[in-house]
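User: Modeling request: complex.
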Amino acid sequence: MNKTYLYRLDWLVILCYLSLVLFGALNIYSSTFDNNLNKVFVLESLTGKHIIIFIVSLVFGSFILFIRTQFFQQLSYLIYFISLLLLIGLFFFGETINSAKSWYIIKGFSIQPSEIAKIGTAFAISRYLSDFNTDIKEFRSLFKGLILIFIPSILIILQPDPGSAIIFGSFFLIFFREGLSFKYLIFSFLGLILFVSTLIIPIKYIIILTTILSLFIFYFFNRYNKKTKVFPFFMFLMFSSAFILSVNFIFNSVFEQRHRDRFNIILGLVEDSKGLGYNINQSKIAIGSGGLTGKGFLQGTQTKGNFVPEQQTDYIFTTVAEEWGFIGSSFLILIFVILIIRMVNRAEKQKNIFRRNFIYGICCLIFSHFTINIGMSLGLLPTVGIPLPFVSSGGSTLLSFSLLIFIYLNFDSNRLSDW
Amino acid sequence: MMKRYYIQVITILIAVIFIIRLVSLQILNSEYKYMSENNAVLESPVYPERGFIYDRNGEILVANQIAYDLMVIPENTNKFDTLELSELINIPIKDFKLNFSKAIKFSNKIPSIILSEISKKEHAYIQEKLWKYEGFYLQKKSIRKYYHDIGANFLGYISEVNDSDIDRDNYYQTGELIGRQGIEKYYENILRGEKGKSFFQKDRFNRIIGSYQKGRFDVAPKTASNISLTIDLDLQKYGESLFKNKRGGIVAIEPSTGEILALVTAPSYDPNILLGRKRSINYNELANDTISKPLFDRGLQAQYSPGSPFKVLNALIGLQEEVININDVYTCNKGHFYAKGAFMECHNKVGTKNNLISAIHQSCNTYFAKTYKKLINSKKTVSEGLDNWTSHLNSFGLGSYLGYDLSIGQKGFIPNSNYYDKYYQKGGWKASTIISNSIGQGEILTTPIQMANFTSAIANRGFYITPHFLKSSDKINTKKFEKKITSIDPIHFEPVIEGMEKVVDYGTARIAKIKNIKVCGKTGTVENFIKLNGKKTQLTDHSMFIAFAPKEDPKIALAVFVENGYWGSRWAAPIASLMIEKYLNNKIERKWLENRILKGSLEFEYVKPLSGKLFKINE
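Assistant: Request completed. Predicted assembly structure:
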């Protein structure tokens, strides 16, 4: 490694990465701290594991930095297929943990193939979108792209691990960089609003509301442009109504009660702070009791009392918020924001479309984990078991995100030299 | 633009939503902080050990002992044999099932008491077998231990606070103990100390997993103070033994200090029966005994006509007001006509000539009736005369609560002109109307402690110190008890005291004589009446005696009264005499007298009015 290479590395991202991992280690230590055991630190602990995985990542990462970037581009589909095979293999050789067959356990090491599939899918999508023949504005291309996302998603849903599957949806965001109309994004967003409204408001009102809204919009369009046709609005209305009815049907007939419960609690339709809403309620208490400056490292009473389940993994943010307060948790959010903004900015400097898309893919993954995990802890989103990248305890996730960061560093530092 | 930066825009948007949410949860809302403390921090009181109570010589009267409560956390129990367990703890299975279902109803997770105050002995046995019953455990607790079967009336007891106690004083919380009666109540704040606080970290199963923040917020309890009483254990014990099978009481005071040496009320009870599980049964039994009234402190609460001992006060007032002279002689003819056609009897023979001193030791009614008449008529009006007399008596503490350090008592009654004006209408009464006051009958009411107190004032030749029970305490400076000077000049006391000495030497109470101790006293035989089936019925007289000794340097002053004991020297004088001998000599030489008193019983008197038959009195 020569001096210029070191100089070219994106040290801001490295700084963000290191601070997240170390902050994660501190909070895992606190979450798993047991008053009654006076051991200061042991490698067998979850904190120890976090640090070991971090060191392992550094070792692998250093190798990654020296791999030629074309190599990744060429092997993209291969990696994708291998990861799909690993997902399929789970149905035969997987271990069931928490009622999902999501793990391989080989000589004491547990590996979660869905983490590998995230990397594999990111490669495949980036490769596909950078292909000369792909024009995302065409329906055929869009459809093929979606298929690439759906295959691993469905395999993961079947495990069943619907939480992880949702993450794959975030790859959809890359398509817009390649020219997919933002209408889709807007329609998706409207669809989400309709979906939530359907659960809150009785059906007839929501249909009446939608109708009035469409008429209103049509009226304005018509004022500025007399040629506006009625048909698209009519179609929109019909589609919305169908959507509403199907959501209602799916929610009430296809969803299982536990899924419905999660939505109901978030939407405030069911009040149950001891049973179903226990996690969210305890999580809110832990976060809220942190105040401005927090209770201090190892001083979180909610954390010590283990009131929040899975606190070292999915609910790690509650430890941060309780012990480091508003200042600490805002700081954590800020680091994620800096990380994503920085990487997108650097991606835009790439001349190579594959690499740019891949960095976008990394950003999408970090973004979706960040949003869902913290949103869930804050009680804004339904309970979904998604870890917070770099911070949560969990070897496979930390390793895969670390590797993604190193691939980014490779792509970024070689953006001029390595075509 | 949008094409390149949409991910950044969405990210910032999401981050802003998160920050807003954090502001609302962490900064604007303080409810969560409270909820978290409720949730994860247990505040638990730390009690200092309740102070011990000693007698004046450092003998321990009351301390603490360990008892155990059998607790249950219903959630933690497995299936168990209810019959076997109820047999183990020795309560009926019905009661056990009831308590257990109450516990479940109260809370599944919070411990409830199944059986309280298991003694140390039972505890060892139960403990050994309790491992079989998951969810049950024994919890230590501190209860009182009484070393002697005495003084239940003034020691009082402690019990759990009730809702009104909590309302009155927010120091207390449900389940805590408070002094209920007597010394325990009056000196509650000294004896209990000040409880502290400990904070514990709980986990989500409500289990304590350690101290909260290494005890940074804990408040250490303030230790309680031990106190010493003015009571003399031996004297108290002796007094109570003398009153076996009798009703009445003794109040003994050290005149120079106002310290109460003994406060006997009979019948009484063993303070230990108000401990432990049988407490409420025993208490109800005591409270429901309306015939012998064991909870009624006769020494402080019983109001009697004082009888003849009151004559010495009238003598003092007479001397002070100069209506009599030591050498004045009045003739008594088995009594005298105090008004036209109104004769007051006296037990002196016809033709007896009494001066002040002989009138006292012969307890001559005639002498004091004449003195009293002069006294009332010494001022311009009878009202003034009477009120002057009343104010002299008030200076001896009569007609008031005295201010001793127990919260029960009675004021007694000393009539004034207002009272008679109301009763007879203004001008409708004169000295002869109220002549009974001269010999301590009539409207006057006194409590035994008031009588002991005025005896003490006589012994002091003109002052008394507010009688009290607290001798000293570890921590708090004992407040000085007030010295009160009577309205009688000291020189007038000598002839009266001489008269009282003669009472014992060759007067009405020769039985109270003690070798080498000059005892001064005055007997009383008090007529008394009750309402029986709606009719005023006279019962056998109360036997009364006041005394102090030694004459020159009084160490003890006391009032003894024995309900329905007939004449004063029959019961009260010997009891007082034995008390004095016991206190001053610490041993009794007159075994025959002691035996007579110890064995003597008045139960036959007490059943008379209950028998429903006609009965004779003063046999």
